[in-house]
Structure formats: structure tokens, C-alpha cells
Design goal:
The protein is an alpha/beta fold. The protein has helices spanning 42-54, 75-79, 92-95, 146-151, 166-175, 195-209, 231-244, 339-356, 405-423, 432-438; strands at 5-12, 17-24, 30-38, 60-63, 68-70, 89-91, 101-103, 107-111, 116-119, 124-132, 137-138, 157-158, 179-185, 216-222, 247-249, 252-258, 263-268, 275-279, 282-284, 289-290, 324-326, 370-375, 381-386. It has ten helices and 23 strands.
């Protein structure tokens, strides 16, 4: 039977209520929907929740292969031993909206002229409107030796950018007895651009606590020419770097890992022929990242040369196909790729898609808002907030570039609570409402 469905009922341990999901069990099935959301991560889940309330039941299909949903912003604190991977995980069933249909599969190709998506499992999904929210994937293979090193639990090489390896970072911290600790930032767009240096700051704090800091050198190698892209926060972070005696090498990119020798090879951004080899006892790698290959599949004019979905940076509507919108890390918008950015984008996509469907008036514009809580120790954090072009846009009537204990506990406790209980349910669009309460007359 091409369209056989079975119902899954389960008790949501977090919400304390029963929820029901329609999950595809067929092979080579044909589906049709008003709205197809490709990707069930932060952006996809949020948008599915918003439109599942607006449209008739099963008018929204979510195409998502994973059974697990992670709150990835906490991976830094997992790597630093503050929390566990299990604490960042929920089942996909518990966060996807009950009024939407979940097809547990991934997109093989998108055919925008025909309004069709083909899945890797052989399904065909016909849509009227499409939201692409496929995120980024870690491109480990781009760095020779990296995959091998990550799989070897005794290699001293880890990354907080994966649920598979972020607890390995914590294990490496505990096993570190001194020597060279090296942290990297690649020459590709990445999720949460602040995290590569956050984990270096946490390493310094942990090594100080365990009395090995005096026997250690911490090096941060970044492809960027500055420590952070917004000057106000870069100035503050330079003081952190100097206080913690972390050596920063700019325009320096990881080329190869040699786990048998415990060496890492780097090249210079301005001249790739200039290479250097650095020994390490601990190596934390931020892997190169790329969009999923579906954005380049099928020859459709959906993405730029690097595979990023081409959308108008203000409306988030596709530049060629007006019934397609993008949200999150997979788009070519020049903003910081963070969960905070997705929250703000969600309100824009909701309004503009509703207008495209004929149910709204005018357009809203995304201003590039992003936020990055930069933890600097086990009790302090710099809460960076900014718009396009690196313009600071802070919520609270304080200087958020200063290290703050309040910001740390917001990062650790408040933001995950908002994420699970409000954002993924389509009820949180960023902190604008807080700004209006604090200063109701501000523009």
C-alpha cells in the first residue's frame, strides 16, 4: 500500500502529556502537502510548529531522517564537563508538532519547477510551498587524518561540533597533564562562530583548576584576521585572551592531522604554500562545514557555488522560486549562524510565507540579528548580540561586552529552557519583546 501510515502514541516525559504522530512507514510512497519543511532541526521544527497551527491537520509535512533532536548550543558545555550529551537530546517525536506529518527520510533531490522533492528512501513529495532548513554538515574528509583521529579515543583529538565526539573533548580535558593544547577555526562558514574560542577559554579554566595550566601552552589558530567579527566584542575578548595567555594565530587553517605523530599541519590563508607543523597533546578541531549535497543535486538553480540556498537576505524568500523560503544555517545570508538568528528569522519567514499564501499583508525584513553567548570560564560569559554588518544590538541596559555571571547562567539554564518550551513550539521569535518591556519607546 503506497500510503500506509501508522500512528505512534507516546508519553512526552518533558511535557507530561500524550502526543500522537503520523509517521511514514511505506516505501516508494507518494505524498502531497500544502507546505513541506525539509529538515527537522531548529529552523525546520520551529517553522513546522508555526504552520501546523495555521493550516489543516497533515497539511504540513516534515522531512527529517533523524530520530534525535539536539540542542547544539550546549555542546560547548558538554565538552567542558558541565553537562552531558543526554541532557541536550530529545526524541524527534517529542518536539515535532502533532498536527504535522513526519516522513522519516532525507531529501535526495529538489525539483523546484515541478514542486517535487525526491527522498533517499524512494518517496515522492509534492508541495505547494517549501521551507528549506537542512542546516550544515561536518566535512571531516576535507582534513586528511581527522576522521581517523576522532574515532581513536586515545588520540587526544576531539570536536564539540558533534554529539558523537563532544564528550570526547571532556575526556581529553581530564586526561590532559600538560603540553600543547591547540584549538582551530576552519576557512568555511560554520555553526556558532564563537564556539571554537569558547572551548579554548573553558580549557584554560579547567587546566587552571587542575593545576596543569602552568605546564601548558594554549594556542588558538583561526582563519579569521580578528578574534571576533564585531569590534565591540572583539576588544573585550582580546582582554580575555591576554589574561588567559592564549596565543592566537590569525589566518591559520588546519590542513592535515597526523595522529600517529600527534602533529597538525596548518597553512596560511594569504599564501597556502606557507605551511607549519605543530605538535599537540590535545587538539580540538572545528571541522570544515558545508550544506548537504541535496542543494546541489538535480541541477536545480537553488544554491550558490558553495551549496548555500540563495535567498533574499531580508525576506528569506528564494531569489528564483517565490514559493520557496530558507531558514537557518543552509542559506547564503551573511549573518552569524546561530540558534538566536533562527528565532528571529522564524518570525520573518512566518509572515512572508503567510503573505505568499495569500493570508497576510506586506513583508517583514530580517535585520541579520544573531547572538553568541561567549563563555569565558565556568561562571562568566560575554553576551554578544548584533545585526548585519556587525552592528551591536543588545537587549539589556548594561554593557554586554563585559564578562557576566548572569549571562553564563542564561546560557546554561535559561536559553535551553526557552528553546525546548517555546522556540521549537513556535512561540519564541527572539528577545524583541524584552527590549520593548525594558525600553518601550526605543526604535
Amino acid at each position: 500500500m503506497n500510503n500506509f501510515l501508522f500512528k505512534l502514541s507516546f508519553l512526552s516525559t518533558n511535557a507530561g502529556i500524550f502526543r500522537h504522530f503520523s509517521v511514514s512507514a511505506a516505501r516508494n510512497a507518494n505524498y502531497s502537502c500544502k507546505l513541506l519543511v525539509v529538515g527537522g532541526g531548529s529552523g525546520g521544527c520551529t517553522m513546522a510548529a508555526k504552520f501546523a497551527r495555521r493550516l489543516k491537520k497533515d497539511s504540513v509535512i516534515v522531512l527529517e531522517p533523524s530520530s534525535d533532536h539536539y540542542y547544539q548550543p550546549l555542546f560547548t558545555l558538554v565538552g567542558a564537563g558541565v553537562t552531558s550529551v543526554a541532557a541536550t537530546r530529545r526524541s524527534a517525536r517529542s518536539v515535532l508538532p502533532s498536527a504535522a506529518q513526519w516522513v522519516q527520510d532525507s531529501a535526495e533531490s529538489i525539483h523546484p519547477k515541478e514542486n517535487v522533492v525526491k527522498t533517499t528512501g524512494g518517496h515522492t513529495i509534492n508541495y505547494e510551498y517549501l521551507i528549506v532548513a537542512v542546516g550544515l554538515v561536518n566535512d571531516y574528509a576535507k582534513v586528511p587524518g581527522l576522521t581517523e583521529a576522532l574515532k581513536d579515543r586515545n588520540s587526544g583529538v576531539s570536536t564539540i561540533y558533534s554529539s558523537d565526539y563532544c564528550e570526547k573533548t571532556w575526556s581529553d580535558f581530564k586526561n590532559f597533564k600538560g603540553g600543547e593544547a591547540v584549538f582551530t577555526y576552519p576557512d568555511t562558514p560554520i555553526k556558532c562562530p564563537g564556539a571554537p574560542q569558547k572551548i579554548a577559554y573553558m580549557a584554560d579554566s579547567y587546566f587552571t583548576k587542575t593545576n596543569v595550566r602552568s605546564k601548558s601552552n594554549i594556542t588558538y589558530n583561526t582563519c579569521l584576521p580578528v578574534i571576533f567579527g564585531v569590534k565591540k566584542y572583539a576588544d573585550a575578548l582580546m582582554k580575555v585572551v591576554e589574561r588567559k595567555k592564549i596565543k592566537v594565530n590569525y589566518k591559520t587553517v588546519l590542513k592535515e592531522v597526523r595522529p600517529d605523530k600527534k602533529e597538525a599541519v596548518f597553512y596560511n590563508v594569504d599564501d597556502r604554500s606557507k605551511e607549519s607543523t605543530q605538535a599537540y597533546s590535545l587538539l580540538h578541531v572545528t571541522p570544515p562545514m558545508r550544506p548537504p549535497r541535496v542543494l546541489l543535486a538535480g541541477g536545480a538553480a537553488l544554491a550558490d557555488a558553495a551549496g548555500f540556498l540563495t535567498v533574499d537576505k531580508f525576506s528569506l524568500q528564494h531569489t528564483t522560486y517565490p514559493n520557496i523560503f530558507g531558514i537557518g544555517d543552509c542559506t547564503d545570508t551573511p549573518n552569524s549562524k546561530t540558534a538566536a538568528a533562527i528565532a528571529k528569522q522564524a518570525a520573518v519567514v512566518e509572515h512572508n510565507l503567510q503573505t505568499a499564501m495569500g493570508g497576510g499583508g506586506g513583508r517583514r525584513a530580517y535585520d541579520g540579528y544573531g547572538a553568541c553567548p561567549l563563555v569565558t570560564s565556568y561562571h562568566t560569559c560575554v553576551l554578544a548580540e548584533f545585526l548585519y554588518d556587525g552592528v551591536p544590538h543588545e537587549t539589556f541596559p548594561i554593557n554586554q561586552a563585559r564578562e557576566s555571571m548572569m549571562a553564563y547562567y542564561m546560557k546554561r539554564d535559561l536559553f535551553p529552557f526557552i528553546y525546548w518550551n517555546f522556540m521549537l513550539k513556535g512561540h519564541y521569535n527572539g528577545p524583541e519583546f524584552i527590549r520593548k518591556i525594558i525600553n518601550p519607546f526605543a526604535k
